[in-house]
Amino acid sequence: MVVNDSVLADSVNLYAIVGQGTITNGTGTCTGSPKRLVPGANTVTVTGLGTFTVTMCTGTSASAASGTTTITGSPVSCPAAAATSITTTGVTGTITITVTYSSTGNWNSAYSWSSVSGGTPNNHVVPTSTNPVFFDANTFTAGSQTFTANNSSDVCAAMDWTGATNTLHLQ
User: Does 72 share its domain with 10?
Assistant: First the structure.
């Protein structure tokens, strides 16, 4: 692992995320801010019919089931390191998204990084020597999770652990 001493002014900050997912509105609207999915059952309020997207971190998966509104293909599988479109077909109401989380994140997986703290996993960005990286209160969802950065090609401009919680492991 290499940490570059100089941070470029135009670099993009990247935040590590492990064991979680997010919801992004589409033609339908899901309330809640942040729209972060953590391990276990997450009740999501749907305020408009249509589609929304669930994106999961590396190794983490989820399933969505109808609550007081109907979704197509209940339960809907949301596989690890992927974005899944879910369509609501009933009235405005709730659905349940149950997250089965991973205990690891991987430096080289774009689905272990977000451009905002606790945000949607990227599907195209991993840190380079121009990116400052952050491990904060929204990085880990449970204790004893591991983030793997064990290749000489794993680089970043700077690394900040301010606010990180739980018992963490960087290997």
Answer: no
